[in-house]
Q: What sequence folds into this?
């Protein structure tokens, strides 16, 4: 069986350990592993190459993806998807493994329905916004990058009487902001999923300043697009000099954490163990187990933030 892997959408740390495991475990099982470079764009352009264990030596600790990634606009055009299909046929590829997010899986689903190209999807994105799934490859490293950044910002914040507003990535999903605010002792956490109350926060902050509070750490999700406003709010309403830090793409990089490397290997194992008996599935991680799901089931559900985590963060949102 010839199996090709590609990485699609925003790269995330842990993709390389997954690629390494894919090659090694495929060879172990007697499958022929292939790389598709540059994601769906590369599939359209026929950038397909047989992979060997020599290609994946020394990549386990590296962030990013050695086979690169892309966000393909051409994929929306059936003519290009046909080209992609012909490229796969010319290389006799039997099944595609895609590492990516919701958008990438939908792209694959269309492809499967049109050309009957079998696939397995593995969730990978720092956003952690896939329904019926609790962990996507890249999330743990991103959380650790944010932790490190907040620790460093706290050094300067605590040396001045200032408020620091830190913007995390995640598109419309507040997972990174929520988890980071709780894990790193922030005073404020604003995310798109939960209505917040600045008046309540103000009352509490003014009281705390009276009691001796000297600085603030606020974590704001990029999806809200209010980072600058919150910085100004601290100045006008709280009377604190403030600075905004947009963490940006550093959250996508960094050496994959131990958890990331282990989970990446497990995702690949589950995918390859099922390519013959149970293909065309997304491998999800849910309730501490790996569960194969139909894309339909995922598409028709909405991701939910962890309720206990939301409970822990309520007072950081001004919810009393
Ligand atoms: O989906 C991953 C992600 O990093 C989002 O958190 C962010 O909004 C987006 O990608 C940034 O996209 P780009 O790398 O294309 O600027």
A:
């Amino acid at each position: 069986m010839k199996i090709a892997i590609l990485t699609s959408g925003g790269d995330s740390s842990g993709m390389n350990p997954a690629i390494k495991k894919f090659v090694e475990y495929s060879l172990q099982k007697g499958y022929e592993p292939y790389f598709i470079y540059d994601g769906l764009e590369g599939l359209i352009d026929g950038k397909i190459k047989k992979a060997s264990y020599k290609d994946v030596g020394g990549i386990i600790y590296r962030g990013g993806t050695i086979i690169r990634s892309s966000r393909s606009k051409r994929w929306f055009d059936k003519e290009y998807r046909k080209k992609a299909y012909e490229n796969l046929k010319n290389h006799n590829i039997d099944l595609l493994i895609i590492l990516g997010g919701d958008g990438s899986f939908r792209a694959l689903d269309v492809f499967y329905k049109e050309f009957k190209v079998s696939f397995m999807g593995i969730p990978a994105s720092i956003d952690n916004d896939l329904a019926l799934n609790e962990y996507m490859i890249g999330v743990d490293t991103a959380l650790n990058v944010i932790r490190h950044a907040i620790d460093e910002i706290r050094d300067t914040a605590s040396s001045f009487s200032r408020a620091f507003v830190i913007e995390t990535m995640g598109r419309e999903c507040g997972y990174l902001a929520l988890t980071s605010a709780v894990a790193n002792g922030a005073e404020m956490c604003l995310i798109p999923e939960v209505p917040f109350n600045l008046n309540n926060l103000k009352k509490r902050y003014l009281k705390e300043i009276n009691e001796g509070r000297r600085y603030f750490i606020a974590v704001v999700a990029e999806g809200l697009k209010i980072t600058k406003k919150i910085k100004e709010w601290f100045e006008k309403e709280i009377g604190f000099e403030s600075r905004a830090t947009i963490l940006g793409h550093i959250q996508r990089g960094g050496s994959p954490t131990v958890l990331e490397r282990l989970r990446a290997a497990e995702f690949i194992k589950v995918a390859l163990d099922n390519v013959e008996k149970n293909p065309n599935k997304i491998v999800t991680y849910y309730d501490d187990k790996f569960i194969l799901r139909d894309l339909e089931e995922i598409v028709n559900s909405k991701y939910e933030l962890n309720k206990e985590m939301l409970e822990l963060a309520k007072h950081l949102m001004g919810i009393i």
Summary: The chain has eleven helices and eleven strands. The first helix runs from residue 15 to 29. The chain has a mean pLDDT of 97. The chain has two domains: 2-138+256-301, 140-252.
